[in-house]
Amino acid sequence: MENFYLFVLMCIFLIILPGPDTAITTKNTVTVGKIGGLKTALGTCCALLIHTSAAVLGLSAIIVKSALLFSVFKYVGAVYLIYLGVKTLWSLKKKEEAASVKVMTKSQFVNTSCFKQGFLTNILNPKVAVFFLTFLPQFVDSGINTFLPFLIMGITYTVLTAVWFLLYVYLINQISAFMKKPKTQNIIEGITGTILIGFGIKLALEKTHN
C-alpha cells in the first residue's frame, strides 16, 4: 500500500463534504435526538462495510461494469432519496395536526427507522461503489493482490466516517436548544427535503459507467 497517510487525509476531506448521508443524519438528529443521529450514522457505516466487502470480492466491479445493474441500483437509490425528500417536506404540513401522545409514538417509530434510512441511503448509491473502485486503487502498488489493501482502506474509511459523524451528531446535539426550535426545525427539514430530492434527481441523471 502506498501513501497511507495521504489516503487518510483525502478520506477526511471527502467525508466532511456534505452529501445525502449528512442530510439524513442532520434531519434525524434534529427531529429525533442524538440517538436518532447515531443510529443513522451506524446505518451508513454498516453500508460502507458492505461496500468494502463488495470491493474486496470484486462485486463492485461487476456492478460498475454492468450497465443494467448500475442502472438498477442508480434508479432505486434515486427513487429512495426522492421519497425521503418528499416525505420530509410532507411532514412539515402534517406537524400541526399531531397531538402530544401521537408525537411520542411517531418519535419512537422514526427512531427505529433512522438506522434503515442511513443504511439504505448509502447502500443504494452506486456512486459509492464507483468511488471505492476508482479511489482505492490509486493507493495500491501495481501488480500485488488487492484483497488486504482494499480491506484495510475500506475499514479505515468506515472508521473515519464513524468518528466524523460522532463529532457531527455531538455538535448538532450541543446546539439542540437552537436547532430544536420549531421554526429552526421547519427550516432544516425543508432544506433537507429539498436537498434529498436534488441528490435523487442528480443520481437518476448520472451516466452509466462502462
UniProtKB/TrEMBL annotation:
Annotated Pfam families: LysE
Membrane topology per record: Multi-pass membrane protein
Bilayer-crossing regions: 41-60, 67-86, 147-171
Localisation per UniProt entry: Cell membrane
InterPro entries listed in its UniProt record: LeuE-type
Keyword presence, Transmembrane: yes
Keywords for the protein's UniProt record, in alphabetical order: Cell membrane, Membrane, Transmembrane, Transmembrane helix
Protein name per UniProt: LysE family translocator
Species annotation: Metabacillus bambusae
